[in-house]
Design a protein that fits this description.
Strand order of the largest sheet of chain A: 2-3-1-4
Distance between the termini of chain A: 15 Å
Shape of chain A: globular
Number of domains of chain A: 1
Number of helices of chain A: 3
Order of helices and strands of chain A: EHEEHHE
CATH topology of chain A: Alpha-Beta Plaits
Strand content of chain A: 35-45%
CATH class of chain A: Alpha Beta
Radius of gyration of chain A: 14 Å
Largest sheet of chain A: 4 strands, antiparallel
Number of strands of chain A: 4
CATH architecture of chain A: 2-Layer Sandwich
Oligomer: homodimer
Chain lengths: ~100, ~100
């Protein structure tokens, strides 16, 4: 779903990924990390889609909240496994959302 | 593919969408708009994925480049059709990319 974020400014982490063919444990870990992210201070929402390319955007109140999530112990273990097993290539971009607008029918 | 962007700072437009069931003309327009975006001054790259939710992130050198693309005549026609026909809901977020890093096996 589209994340219900507050008025800017807030922060976005754009995580763009190409997967390996190794799927073992990936789905379980992805669910677990999303659940864990939601419990972090400063978490605002998450959006995810995948075809060949996967894009996950998580939204945060501050750079400090992003840094704390990066340093979370369970998340660090997951990131290490991601590099070893699940990701062929990724790019992570940390952004300040300056403007936003929406549309709904 | 993952966009080959330069060192930050640069800008990202995160376009998160939920589609209607009306597909007529959508794929053609999406291809046309991506081709047109690539020709704009200040364009840096694009990434796209869709399941139920679609996420397209385009990257730009400056806010001015984003504004010029927004005001492009053909793009304005496409956006109007998007609201009328193809999108049930969307959120567009304009962001300054402050940091990024990548990984490749």
């Amino acid at each position: 779903m589209i994340a219900n974020t507050p008025k800017p400014p807030y922060y976005a982490v754009i995580f763009s990924t190409l997967r390996t063919s190794d799927n073992e444990g990936y789905d379980e870990m992805a669910v677990k990390m999303e659940e864990l992210a939601k419990k972090q201070d400063g978490y605002l929402g998450i959006e995810s889609a995948r075809n060949d390319l996967g894009i996950t955007v998580s939204y945060w109140e501050s750079l400090d909240a992003i840094l704390k999530w990066k340093n979370n112990a369970e998340h660090s273990v997951a990131r290490k496994k991601g590099k070893e097993l699940w990701y062929k290539k990724y790019q992570l971009r940390i952004c300040k959302v300056e403007h936003d607008y929406g549309f709904e029918k």
